[in-house]
């Protein structure tokens, strides 16, 4: 089976963190970037993505596969992120080639593990190597990658320390955040803000005028089921 092209969805919001998000001036640069959210199953990739897009945590995310579009202004640059939230691993044989195609599509990467799941942490060096081999090639430019330790709220089940996470990210030249998608929006915002800071202008495509349509209906339908906000 070839790469399934996911549905494209858009969401927009008005930032309320003035310390983090600058109001774009008339000369603000408008760019767009493709972000791939990767990691083992069940680590909270969808929870983190949905938290960033909507500020909400809904608990169960099913196996949706979307590319979401979302605006963020960082350091005077208005970036339209296209975020691909990869669903649970499907057909094993298909996995490698699909992942390669997704990596080619992306300009920047969010690699998520769970602090309660050692295996999800252990696979990261290989993932980073794979991404770097595919993206850096002969160029000396660094690939923007942020490593995220999720489920920080589950203290008693922690098996990966913050130091281990930080050291791994340092050794792989990646950004690092520990967050709880379940507990707060701020961590998710920091992740994408930090990622944006790592993307040089040369890696951003000029915006092609993609239309932002507001929160998607299908997402709203899911939220109607369960809401556990903790802003
Ligand atoms: P994915 O397979 O990586 O996309 O993982 P999901 O986003 O679907 O989350 C998997 C499970 O972990 C769900 O039951 C979520 O409710 C839960 N989850 C996600 N993030 C957190 C978190 O920060 N804390 C806790 N306690 N649970 C979380
Ligand atoms: Mg998911």
From TrEMBL:
<dbReference type="InterPro" id="IPR005225">
    <property type="entry name" value="Small_GTP-bd"/>
</dbReference>
<dbReference type="GO" id="GO:0003925">
    <property type="term" value="F:G protein activity"/>
</dbReference>
<dbReference type="Pfam" id="PF00071">
    <property type="entry name" value="Ras"/>
</dbReference>
<keyword id="KW-0547">Nucleotide-binding</keyword>
<keyword id="KW-0378">Hydrolase</keyword>
<dbReference type="InterPro" id="IPR001806">
    <property type="entry name" value="Small_GTPase"/>
</dbReference>
<comment type="similarity">
    <text>Belongs to the small GTPase superfamily. Ras family.</text>
</comment>
<dbReference type="InterPro" id="IPR027417">
    <property type="entry name" value="P-loop_NTPase"/>
</dbReference>
<protein>
    <recommendedName>
        <fullName>small monomeric GTPase</fullName>
        <ecNumber>3.6.5.2</ecNumber>
    </recommendedName>
</protein>
<dbReference type="GO" id="GO:0005525">
    <property type="term" value="F:GTP binding"/>
</dbReference>
<dbReference type="InterPro" id="IPR051065">
    <property type="entry name" value="Ras-related_GTPase"/>
</dbReference>
<keyword id="KW-0342">GTP-binding</keyword>
């Amino acid at each position: 089976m070839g790469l399934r092209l996911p549905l494209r969805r858009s969401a927009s919001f008005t930032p309320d963190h003035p310390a983090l998000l600058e109001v774009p001036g008339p000369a603000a640069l408008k760019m767009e970037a493709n972000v791939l959210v990767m990691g083992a199953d069940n680590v909270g990739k969808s929870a983190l993505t949905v938290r960033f897009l909507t500020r909400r945590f809904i608990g169960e995310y099913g196996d949706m596969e979307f590319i979401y579009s979302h605006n963020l202004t960082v350091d005077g640059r208005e970036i339209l992120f296209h975020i691909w939230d990869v669903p649970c691993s499907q057909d094993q044989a298909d996995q490698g080639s699909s992942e390669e195609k997704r990596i080619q599509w992306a300009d920047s990467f969010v690699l998520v593990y769970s602090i309660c799941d050692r295996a999800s942490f252990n696979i990261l060096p290989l993932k980073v190597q794979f991404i770097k081999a595919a993206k850096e090639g002969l160029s000396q430019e660094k690939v923007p990658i942020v490593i995220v330790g999720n489920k920080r709220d589950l203290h008693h089940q922690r098996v990966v320390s913050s130091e281990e996470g930080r050291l791994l990210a340092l050794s792989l030249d990646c950004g690092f955040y520990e967050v709880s998608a379940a507990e707060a929006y701020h961590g998710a915002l920091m992740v994408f803000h930090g990622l944006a800071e790592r993307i040089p202008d040369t890696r951003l495509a000029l915006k092609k005028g993609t239309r932002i349509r507001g929160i998607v209906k299908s997402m709203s339908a899911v939220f109607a089921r369960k809401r556990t906000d903790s802003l």
